[in-house]
Amino acid sequence: MDSNSEASAMLSPNMIVPRGVKETGSAFAWYAQMRQQSPVHYDEERRSWDVFLYEDVHRVMSDYKSFSSQTRRGMDGQQSDMLLMMDPPKHKKYRSIVNKAFTPRAVEAMGPRIAEITHELLDQIEGAKGMDIIRDLSFPLPVIVIAELLGVEEKDRALFKGWSDTLVEGFSGTEETPQQLAARKNQASRELYGYFMQVIERRRQQPQQDLVSALLAAEVEGEKLDLPHLLSFCLLLLVAGNETTTNLIGNAIICLTEEPGRWRQLADNRELLDTAIEESLRYRSPVQGMVRKAVADVELGGQLIRKDQLITAWMGSANRDEHKFEAADQFRIDRHPNQHMAFGMGVHFCLGAPLARLEARTALNVLLDRFPDLHAKQGQELKLLPSPMVYGVQQLPVLF
Q1: DSSP states of 65-107 as a string?
Q2: Do residues 125 and 136 touch, judged by C-beta distance below 8 A?
Q3: pLDDT of amino acid 16
């Protein structure tokens, strides 16, 4: 498997929907059932262990010596070039290089520009009595932010967005086969890699104030990112960053509008915004699960997991575990503390979490300013994304 196909396969979760979700009709109902009946369970159809309790998910996500992120290897048997799939010590070295460029100060400095983009997007629906949050705001916002971060020119933004759409697309059971979808993803990743190679070469010759230039300059112990690692990080930032932030904003607005008066409460009490975002992350986590592989035979929750078997750690279930969170099945706008795992845990804690939080906080603040009476459209049925690993909706109509 080459780096292009590996990237599109890893970052586009097309795994089979677990039978339990089909039977209960809801991932959250399935989680609750499994936490009670079989918290560490082997699924024969998917050939994967499923882990549901907070304590067990925490261990799988943080104990990299027992549960490896390296679930796939290249054709040469070596570790993937993708940061998401590396284990220490290689992961630590490359993440340290990336951290040199992707600093908290650099992220926070983007706040005014994110607010400006948000206003520009909302200006396009000026005078309307409603909007589709996904189409009009939460989808284009992170695409534009990431594009600007990576030095994509404005004239290429539509092209860039098309590649992003394809790479995060899930198999929906349409006339297209899974093989045809995989082929489109591979083509998109090849074209995207080609585009980034041109951007990288231009930045080598003429550095600018963008993330690619910073990544080219960053080094740890005299070592810089080589081209394969630089390309894979750009792809990871594009796909993971866009998908997570789109769904974080959308899911937060669902949480804040499904109960009458909650949006207005937040409009009048902005000090609740940060806890509201964290509670949205817990209650409707954008990423529901991550896959790991057993390094050796290991016991977990009274079950023996064999070496090389796959484990799906369901963070979406851990974040609703009754043993960890009081009234776990309720959205509490002022919940504190809130030790959710929406951004993962351990060495693979999401590198883009500060950016995702900043985009959500900025976008919600602007919405609250401009539309303090925003509310959900009554009687609508929200259609979920088809992937079991990602939680979000395809459309989210609201009125104001």
Answers
A1: TTEES-----TTSPPPS-GGG--TTHHHHHHHHHHHHS-HHHH
A2: yes
A3: 65
